[in-house]
Amino acid sequence: MKKRGLLILILWTTVACVAIGQRRLNVRDHETIRRTLDFANGATTRVLDVDNVQGSIRVTGYDGSTVEMIADKTIRAESQDRLSQAQREVRLDIQDKQDTISVFVDQPGHERSTNSSSHSNWSDRGYEVSFNYEFRVPRQIAVRLRTINDGDIRVEDINGDFDVNNINGGIEMSSMSGSGRAHTINGGVRVTFRNNPRNDSHFGSLNGNIEVTFPQSLSADVRFKTFNGGVYTDFPVTGVPVTLNASQRRDGRLVYKNEYQLARIGNGGPTLEFDGFNGDVRILQTK
């Protein structure tokens, strides 16, 4: 009972702190930014790269050649001076006319993400700035999307590859045809493929369910794990011999460990990895 009471106190304190923070940021400014962006002429590889900090990202494919962007920018500050400071310190760095169209939130503490790392150091500057994006893009392009707080990432009708990362929000992708990675920390991952991935792909969440739906013709090797949840599929599967990871020495003994379980769907093919922890993993086929 004492532990339960302590948990309630911690939750109440957290909610109270959030409420206090929201009340003190009572000076606001909002603007809508609209841009039409172009890839380089003759670009063979076309990528939309969005590196956000706070807010949502929505990308929809269409039959066109340009990227149409709408960004709703909201500043919440504790004073007019802090709001003016935010207007000076936080801006969108947009680069186009290249193979990659890049949209980066340039603000103190936020570094440009790479394929292997993403860094954003938070400090209380007396303001918060959020960007909620909507993009219409040529459906054949690849997407690289990142956000951290207060927003989900939604992608629809994209044929190219994907690299989608969230921290405090979910990921939802529908009518997909490429291969890639979709991973979040606090949220669910739900992906529906129109065409099966041709290359290795990864789907992961630390605190949320993972649900990925494939056409019935799927043929792949599957790696999966979850700690506080179950793994379910309606595909017929066969077992695959387990390859143990490299040995580790503990208390003078060699210990071999394999974190993932393996299975094969159809005749095998690209490796599809499902990395869960506090949630279920569901590998489903289109009805």
Tell me the helix content. 10-25%
Write down the overall mean pLDDT.
87
> What share of the residues does DSSP label as strand, in percent?
over 45%
- What is the general shape? globular
Which stretches are low in confidence, meaning pLDDT under 50 for 5 or more residues running? Answer: 1-22, 254-258
* Distinct helical segment count: 2
**From the helix content, strand content and strand pairing, which structural class follows?**
mainly beta
**Rg from Cα:** 22 Å
Largest sheet: 11 strands, mixed
Task: State the distance separating the first and last CA atoms.
Answer: 47 Å
For the biggest β-sheet, the strand order reads 5-6-2-8-10-12-14-22-16-21-18
Question: In sequence order, what are the helices and strands, one letter per element?
Answer: HEEEEHEEEEEEEEEEEEEEEEEEE
The count of DSSP E runs of length 2 or more, i.e. the number of strands, is 23
Key words describing this protein structure:
single chain, 11-stranded mixed sheet
Describe what is shown at a glance:
This protein is mainly β.
Characterize the structure shown:
This protein has a domain at 22-169. The protein has helices at residues 2-24, 80-89, and strands at 27-37, 47-51, 57-62, 67-77, 91-95, 100-106, 127-138, 142-146, 153-156, 162-165, 171-176, 180-186, 189-193, 201-207, 210-214, 220-225, 231-233, 237-239, 248-250, 253-255, 261-265, 271-276, 281-285. The strands form three sheets. It has an eleven-stranded mixed beta sheet. Strands 1-4-7-3-9-11-13-15-23-17 form a ten-stranded mixed beta sheet. The termini are far apart. The longest helix is centred in the N-terminal third of the chain and has 23 residues, at 2-24. By secondary structure, the chain is mostly beta strands.
